[in-house]
Structure formats: C-alpha cells, structure tokens
Amino acid sequence: MISFTLLQLEAFVAVCRHGTMTRAAQALRKDRTTVSELINCLEIDLGCELFDRQTRPPRLTPSGDRLYRQAVLFLQEAQAFSGIASQLAGGESQSLQVSYDVFIPHSMLVSLSTELAKSGVTVNLRCEPRSQGEQALAEGRADIGIYQALNRPVGQSFSWQTLGAIEFAVYASPMLFSEKPVTMMALASHTQLLPWDFMPEYLAQRLQIADHTQSANERELLIALLQARQGWAMLPTHFFTRQKAGVERIETVMGRKGMLHPVVALWQPGKVGHTTLRHVLDVAERSFTV
C-alpha cells in the first residue's frame, strides 16, 4: 500500500531541485508553510528523514539522496500515465515520435511502425544527427531516439539501452582500386564519401580514414557517386542487402570482417508508457544481430 501522495513527492523533488523550501514554494506556486508540511508528512509516512535541517540550506540525508532519483522517476511515470489516460478519455489515438540517425536500418523502422500499429500507436519517424535528436528528446519533441553509441555517459537526463550493433565495411566501384586487398594508404589517398554535411566527431574517430572527404546526405545520391568512381565510403552492410550495380564491398588489409558499432535507444524516464516502451525495445532488439 502506498503511504505517500504525489503532492508530497512533488514538494520533495522541488526542494531538491531549487535548493530551498522558499524557492520550491515559488516554483510550485504554494505557500512555504504548505511545502514544509508536505515534506514533514512525507518523512513521517516514509519513516525516515530526507533533509538535514541543521545545515543552511538543508541538505539531503543519505536516505533522501537515495530516494530523490526514485521520486523523479515515479513522478515522470505518473505524468506519462496521466497523458495516456487523457488521450484515451478524449478518444485520441496514441502517437510516438521516434528520432533516428542515418545508419539505422529501414527494415527495423518499418517493423517498429507495423508492430505498434497493431496496438493503435502511430509511429512518426524523423532522421537527424544524434545531437539534434538529443535536443528533441530533451524538449519533448521526440519520445525515443535510436542512434549509434557515443563513447561518453548519457547523463541523468536519459535512460538508455543497447539494442545491438551495426556492421560497417568499405564500399566502392570495383574499378576504383587497382590492387586488392586495399591498403590503408590507398584508402587515405582517395576521396572518402560521407553521408553527412559534417562528420560527427564520435564517428570521425572510428570511420574517417581519408583526409579529403565529400559529403552527400542522401543515400541514393551517395551510391550514385560510388558508382561514378568519385570515391569510396565506409557504410553499414545493411545498406547493401540488395546488390547495387557498380558498387561492391571492398576487401582491405583489415580482412573481410567488418567493423561493429553499437546502437542504443534513449528516452526520458516516464515520457513513454512502460508497455509501449517495452514494445519498442523488443522490436528494435530483434532487428539487430551482433
């Protein structure tokens, strides 16, 4: 049985975020006395002190520190519950905004749209760089993001889960390189085609080999440039599930085995209902093989 109220949790989280009960009261548009009473009642209901009141401003106790993040997650889930209930009450169909980067397999996105449609969820899809996608997630314009992983923490703003990995390999016209297997020096001396206007740093460290690059952020145009022997590209192997005339996977001194790069899903805790979120992650995981 739950022994606390949402109002109590809102007051607790507000004090943690704003530093004092006075500023928390202003943010919540309540009297300071009301906020103080909500905190006191919450401590009684939980059976532990959340703040050390001997300090100015009050600091979280070890128990309060452990409960703060759980309180944030609880409120976010409650907000998601309220949002979905409002949609159902108003007869609105549920929609999901999914942000993804250029390398995510279209087959996975089609499966995602098809599977969620069976549950009455419309999936709206937007391809964009991860930096823009994270901003959309933070601002509430996207619900879930699916991107290549970064070599850095995602911070407390997002929850995340690894979905699998994408295999990358070198592709070019079979006439571009005279000797095979192709050496790193040969790759560096030819133009590398990129599917972005600007190579994100986290990908440049792994994928960029040549000093001279040329961008084409539309997939079919990039393939046409490969066919015209304008350069070579390091691309996901799923781009070529069907053979493209005049383009082939090039064997390099690194061998036939491609390079794997992990893919992750990001979301704001509580922004998406648990059932929908689990459905999205399950469908996405099934689409990746390592």
From TrEMBL:
It comes from the Bacteria. GO terms for molecular function: DNA binding; DNA-binding transcription factor activity. Keywords: DNA-binding, Transcription, Transcription regulation. PROSITE patterns: HTH_LYSR. The keyword Cytoplasm does not apply. InterPro entries: LTTR (IPR050176), LysR_HTH_N (IPR000847), LysR_subst-bd (IPR005119), WH-like_DNA-bd_sf (IPR036388), WH_DNA-bd_sf (IPR036390). Residues 4-61 form the HTH lysR-type domain. Pfam families: HTH_1 (PF00126), LysR_substrate (PF03466). Belongs to the LysR transcriptional regulatory family. This is DNA-binding transcriptional regulator, LysR family. It comes from Izhakiella capsodis.
